[in-house]
Amino acid sequence: xxxVAAYRRALPLLRIPFSVYLMPxxxxxxxxxxxxxxxxxxxxxxxxxxxxxxxxxxxYNSYYDRDEGSIGGLKAPPKVTPxxxxxxxxxDALAVGGALLLSWQFAALVTVYLLVSKxxxxxxxxxxxxxxxxxLVVVVFQGAFTFLMTQVGAGATSAQLFExxxxxxxxxxxxxxxxxxxxxxxxxxxxxxxxxxxxxxxxLGIRGTFVFAAVGLLAGAxxxxxxxxxxxxxxxxxxxxxxxxPVVVLFSRWAWLVWHDESAANFEHTMRMxxxxxxxxxxxxxxxxxxx
Length: 292
Prior knowledge:
Elements: H1 2-10, H2 23-32, H3 39-65, H4 82-102, H5 104-121, H6 131-153, H7 158-161, H8 164-180, H9 189-195, H10 200-231, H11 234-243, H12 245-260, H13 267-291
């Protein structure tokens, strides 16, 4: 019974609800496909990524970070125990095994994702210590790589994957991550500095983080508009603009608050920004799917 209780206490550090914030890339990848793909396989991809692979990565990061302050999805994280690492290995195995049920190609991509996420946190490598390298790894693997991995898992053909505008949209997902990722670090400057992790947000400073985020998000929106224009798909572009209106308003208001009082760059504002942007973007891409 004590073992069961220990695993139950470790389970929140997998931060399964936090995986919701990565949903937009999944829906974006599906909405971008031109041609047939499998709905049941797409559902399997969702389970593998959001219920298994992402939580395993979250748990591994928590195991090595041993945060004492707030982290993404948890305002007061529990103490790290060895049981957390056991859960990580279990979720890793389930993720790869579940991916194999869909295709070996998808399983190979999931394996690569899991290994890279561990290199990000593992104390012997810890890419997180290097601001530019860690940012590049995160925005590529949680952006374009996951975008294409989702499509592979859903049964997309090579022609669908490597179509020019599809690759451009994959780049868009990385640009959006490039804009939003430093914002997830903006409230952790003291914690990161204490561990010696020179994150991009720490290097940019609080105001610099918001400027960088604005540039990245604008670049992503411009590239998205270009891709839909090349595809002659104005309806998806209009849906995107309408759905992201609340995100623009919230980000602008938050940036204004931070500019006048840097203490506004806190956990609560960061989580609210994550929640609103994730839900709005997911709604936009789901609406695109339904319209098709």
